[in-house]
Amino acid sequence: xxxxxxxxxxxxxxxxxxxxxxxxxxxxxxxxxxxxxxxxxxxxxxxxxxxxxxxxxxxxxxxxxxxxxxxxxxxxxxxxxxxxxxxxxxxxxxxxxxxxxxxxxxxxxxxx
Amino acid sequence: xxxxxxxxxxxxxxxxxxxxxxxxxxxxxxxxxxxxxxxxxxxxxxxxxxxxxxxxxxxxxxxxxxxxxxxxxxxxxxxxxxxxxxxxxxxxxxxxxxxxxxxxxxxxxxxxxxxxxxxxxxxxxxxxxxxxxxxxxxxxxxxxxxxxxxxxxxxxxxxxxxxxxxxxxxxxxxxxxxxxxxxxxxxxxxxxxxxxxxxxxxxxxxxxxxxxxxxxxxxxxxxxxxxxxxxxxxxxxxxxxxxxxxxxxxxxxxxxxxxxxxxxxxxxxxxxxxxxxxxxxxxxxxxxxxxxxxxxxxxxxxxxxxxxxxxxxxxxxxxxxxxxxxxxxxxxxxxxxxxxxxxxxxxxxxxxxxxxxxxxxxxxxxxxxxxxxxxxxxxxxxxxxxxxxxxxxxxxxxxxxxxxxxxxxxxxxxxxxxxxxxxxxxxxxxxxxxxxxxxxxx
Lengths: 112, 442
What we know:
The complex is a heterodimer. Chain A is α+β, with helices and mostly antiparallel strands. Chain A has helices at residues 5-8, 31-40, 45-51, 96-99; strands at 3-4, 11-16, 21-27, 59-65, 70-76, 102-103. In chain A, the strands form two sheets. A four-stranded antiparallel sheet of chain A has the order 2-3-5-4, covered by helices on one side. In chain A, a hairpin with a 4-residue loop joins strand 2 (11-16) and strand 3. By secondary structure, chain B is an alpha+beta fold. Helices cover 31% and strands 28% of the residues of chain B. Chain B has helices at 8-15, 33-37, 45-61, 77-93, 109-117, 132-137, 148-155, 168-178, 183-193, 231-236, 306-310, 312-326, 328-331, 374-390, and strands at residues 22-25, 66-69, 99-104, 121-123, 138-143, 160-163, 209-213, 217-222, 247-250, 253-256, 261-266, 269-273, 276-279, 283-303, 337-343, 363-371, 404-405, 412-428, 436-441. In chain B, the strands form four sheets. In chain B, strands 4, 5, 14, 15, 16, 17 and 18 form a seven-stranded antiparallel sheet that branches. In chain B, helix 3 packs across helix 4 (77-93), helix 8 (168-178) packs across helix 9 (183-193) and helix 12 (312-326) packs across helix 14. Chain A binds chain B through residues 15-21, 23, 25, 27, 51-53, 60-61, 63, 65, 67-70, 72, 74, 78, 80-90, 93-94, 96-97, 99-100, and chain B through 29-34, 125-126, 231-232, 235-236, 238-246, 262, 288, 293-294, 296, 337, 339, 341, 347-355, 368, 370, 417-420, 423.
């Protein structure tokens, strides 16, 4: 059975970080699944450039926040906030490329 | 405060803690450049005035200062002035004597020219130096203040500070720094409190949050008993709408949260320590500007026919071709932009949509047109709607029309459109250089 990131995490959200960047936050249910995801090295600059069609320089950072079992990735916005043609002014729905990311069973809470 | 209705019961509970001041953030620029360029409100002004009345009356009763940041929603000069007028009406209605200090954060084109000449402008969200064309086409520019102009206002004896565009943490940091609290702690209090009970669990933007700061730590708890602050919820708020949870840059320095400790003191109260403020050598503030780029017309059409949906891209491609050809006599070399948003398929994610190939049974087509005038935007959009409605395509059975019309009038006038044109850092000679404080007695 395959597991998708969006189905196994506690929080998966996106938002503007200023008018020119989108930040995606992923919170895991517990330390165990967070550690498993971090160890899996699934979330990398390469992953983000592929999923979000970016150049590596457009990935502003990936920050692992162990204390809260969460990771944050900040990337360049496709269009600046609210300009003509932008269909998500707050960038609140830009986490779907990550939702369908396949993760190993260790990332699923209660997997053992 | 400008787009939500404050929970008054929660606010009253917060006041029972006998705070030394009350701070409120009214908004920001999250919604986009229209709100800056056209000085548009975020929400109903009636809600904002109702919130203002509640906080002003209560802080006067307890004789404590009230600091409101990003007054009016975005903190433009016009919005600060409009807020001041609302405060005047409230003072008259409630027979309150008020010392109000407004802080204007608008910066003039000449200020930007001077700073550019002096080599004191640096790219931030937008690249390059500020050229004359950018400066002159920009409708409105504001600078984002740190705590210093608010501190100056409080020293003037303000009962109410109406600060224009400002960093959300500065609202809370200013009175704390004046009270001798370490800047790292003061700024972190601001970062935690800026979205009210969003740092609690469950989250809420409308429920009051209470912080108690000491010289080297602070404690935070929600005013309402149905909310709790947990180490995880408070720490996690450092991630909210920030690009980096550990390093947060602001006017004059950065807040370093990499060594911050979170401790659960009671089931609802968290102690925070170890946050550090590192001062920059030069004091730089962010300036943001937006320019009018035209007018928008928007049309919404429903499509249910599977044959139309299956050929959507081809149909839209043909419409673009027709548009270029048939509209030429009408528009000449005038530049316009057309965006097709296919809701139900990929309007939200665009080319990033992972399920792009799933075939929906119904879609909404939103046609967005940007043109130099309202009239031209409406004409172009009308042309597209009409052509689409009657365009023949392979396998077409519905020869009476391809589209379900929802709105009247169609298309509708979506008003002026703006783009961010300035998103830069400017080095100031002093932290209050481009912020103008004015005292008004009511």
